[in-house]
Design goal:
about 220 residues, little secondary structure, Pectate Lyase C-like, 2 domains, two-stranded parallel ribbon, two-stranded antiparallel sheet, globular
Length: about 220
């Protein structure tokens, strides 16, 4: 984009990571929520003891709350961490946090509060997101192969489904994902890949599924 005149352009929520922009013009442009290399898209994680907080949270999860303490990363730009692969972050609060491009393979985020989080292009393969709240989350292009998005069992007779109401899953890869009972009301699954995904009793009311591949609509309301 070097030399481009983008004066007054709407670049809200655009991904501009790795873009060459020498001598470009952005006077009056709307850059709200845009991801760039040289400034954080929220509270900078570099100003927080992030590694220690994540360790404390994992310890809190693994000891049933007898040690460590839960962490809150609401509105934090976590991109500099690069990887939280395999960590136990059950019930983490990271509302509107930025996870763009992070390696999150196998991470445990059962019951996590991820409302409005930016998980675009994140590696969430085999991640445990049972019962997670992902309303209005951005998961465009995310790798969710074999991810667990089914219900979280709270008691013998109480289940908490994963809530992806209004989430953006355009182009996401959900191959082999467990999406049983997931709430996908008004979600955007355009061009998503769902080969082998389990969607039994998932709620796709108002969801956009144009161009989605592998979605078996006959299975949605099966008992």
């Amino acid at each position: 984009l070097s030399g481009a005149d983008l004066s007054g352009a709407d670049l809200s929520d655009a991904i501009l990571v790795g873009v060459k922009a020498a001598l470009w013009r952005t006077d009056g442009a709307n850059m709200d929520g845009a991801l760039v290399d040289d400034r954080p898209a929220g509270e900078p994680v570099s100003e927080m003891p992030a590694a220690e907080m994540l360790r404390e949270h994992a310890q809190w999860c693994e000891t049933g709350g007898t040690a460590g303490q839960p962490s809150v990363f609401d509105g934090v730009d976590l991109r500099p961490l690069e990887s939280i692969r395999g960590l136990n972050l059950t019930a983490l609060s990271a509302k509107a946090a930025v996870f763009y491009g992070l390696d999150m393979e196998g991470v445990q985020l059962q019951g996590a509060q991820l409302e409005g989080a930016d998980l675009r292009s994140a590696n969430l393969r085999r991640a445990d997101l049972r019962g997670a709240r992902l309303t209005r989350a951005r998961l465009n292009g995310a790798d969710l192969r074999e991810a667990q998005l089914g219900p979280l069992m709270l008691t013998a007779d109480r289940l908490m489904p994963a809530d992806l109401s209004g989430a953006n899953l355009r182009g996401a890869d959900l191959t082999g994902a467990d999406m049983r009972r997931a709430v996908l009301i008004d979600a955007d699954l355009s061009r998503a890949i769902l080969h082998g995904a389990q969607t039994r009793q998932a709620d796709f009311t108002g969801a956009q599924t144009g161009g989605a591949r592998g979605l078996d609509l006959s299975d949605l309301n099966a008992g």
